[in-house]
Design a protein that fits this description.
Number of strands: 21
Helix content: 10-25%
Order of helices and strands: HEEEHHEEEHEHEHEHEEEHEEEEEEEEE
Number of domains: 2
CATH architecture of the largest domain: 3-Layer(aba) Sandwich
Radius of gyration: 23 Å
CATH topology of the largest domain: Rossmann fold
CATH class of the largest domain: Alpha Beta
Structural class: alpha+beta
Strand order of the largest sheet: 1-2-4-3-7-8-9-12-11-10
Largest sheet: 10 strands, mixed
Shape: elongated
Strand content: 25-35%
CATH superfamily of the largest domain: Alpha/Beta hydrolase fold, catalytic domain
Amino acid sequence: MKIILFYCCLCLLINNALAQQTINASITHDNMQRDYILYVPASYDGTTAVPLLFNFHGYTSNATQQLVYGDFRPIADTAGFIIVHPQGTLDNTGTTHFNVGFGGSTTDDVGFTSALLDTLISQYEINEERVYSTGMSNGGYMSFHLACNLSDRIASVASVTGAMVPATLNNCGATHTTPILQIHGTNDGTVPYNGGVWSSSINDVLNHWVTYNGCVSTPVVASVTDLSTTDGSTVERISYTDANGCTLVKHYKITNGGHTWPGSIVNLPGTNYDIDASKEVWDFVSQFDINGLIGNCQPLGLDESLTNPFSLAPNPSNDLLIVNGLSQEFEAQLLNSQGKVILNKPIDPSNNSIDVSELPAGNYVLKLGTQSLKVAVMH
């Protein structure tokens, strides 16, 4: 019995050692105690360098709330990355915040982030080329602020309901191609979609990074399936690609969406449930390291698993391309391999042909609503 009990206790100790860890800790920076919450997945064993994701909370919020509200823990358990949730300090109104260059704050949150990163690197096996930042609202602003002011250490960033203050936008010091993801609702009453005196518009933010990253200026736009018909909002996916068709700037535009984290377990009014922001953030940023894309991209983000009601004949074609399966009128967009729209044409069941005879031979994509079809032109 004692032997059995010994082995039971030993197994319990091993299981606890291998379990995921949530650690409350702090460092001292600028003579100030700075707190954070670390989440280490069970898969971490210290033998392999793993990615690190900064997850910054919003204005008035805190690290504990962000850990639950913008939750990446189930994803980290599978993908094997560490999450750090920094705690903001109090501003001159007594409200928790991160200093993103607006409002008179003197807190050095860029320096704090760099010092925190140094601390974590000294304690864990962190892949320094795969450090990412995301956050809610003020945390989104902070992520963009780091992309501009800690560029040599941040590979890619994502903002959920945040934006960029004009000072950061106009004086961005990014030093490498920085893929960005922006998730934002058009009815956001806290961070207006169209911007204001203290906040750049979402279009201005996107245009800045499209230009900086050398993307094709015409985006690929697709409607996301309306999985939740009761949340009062719909989503468009807007992708800007480089010359190889790889998406470097992506925007989920949530029509009628509010100042909320899509897909969150905390169902606040205005929350969209067609997408899971945490999943979309990780799926996007994890494609990159500090040097750029890891591996190969899927040009134009085509999802070959989607059931497609349309078919093309003949394909390849050197003359007329016939679209079969139409039941209504669609605005057809033909895009080249760089993601540039080269043809816009309404088509319907009685007018379902597209003339490709004058196009250069090559591969194209035909977009019809939310569906995308590959097209080959041969001469």
